[in-house]
Amino acid sequence: MNTLNLSSDSRSQLTWQVSQNGTFPHPLHNENGVSCATAYVVIEQCARAVSVRVELGDSVNTITLAHRKNTAERVALYLEELANGVSLRSVPEVDEYLLVSGMESVLLAAVRLRKGTYHLPADGIEHLDLLLHPSNSDPSRTVFRFELDSVGLTLPLLLPNDRVLAYELLSGCVQELIANYRCAA
Fold it and tell me: How far is CA 60 from CA 17, 20, 138, in A?
């Protein structure tokens, strides 16, 4: 059976990539150095952790890891274990998923995908949704709005193209909406 591994180049690139947001292709090589597969690693920076999604063939797997000095090596091990069908034991994730709130995870996905309807998990508020779609006036831009129980709460607003600014804007809007809702309730 062929064992697939990342090249030393890919491992070196991961060291930098785990501190960035983005999608990064990583070829996996057999023991003869032949590239047999390419994994796409999607990295999202969260407040206290890094969320990693690995797309390899038809499978999509995610892991959340605390920011540490060895995060890149842990991602590399996770990737190689997925590629080789090995039990994912060398990258323990003991409660690290708790470092990313449900709200942060949903907003990061919305910013990354820039379209769709997202349920926003907020204590005491049911059916709070974020809707994103292309702008009618400029399809290269994204418009967002909020709904509560399918009733519009805001007018459509343009989402910044910069992912950091887009996340900060959405996060601030959500916090303001939730605070206003709770004050009015």
Answer: 19, 20, 32
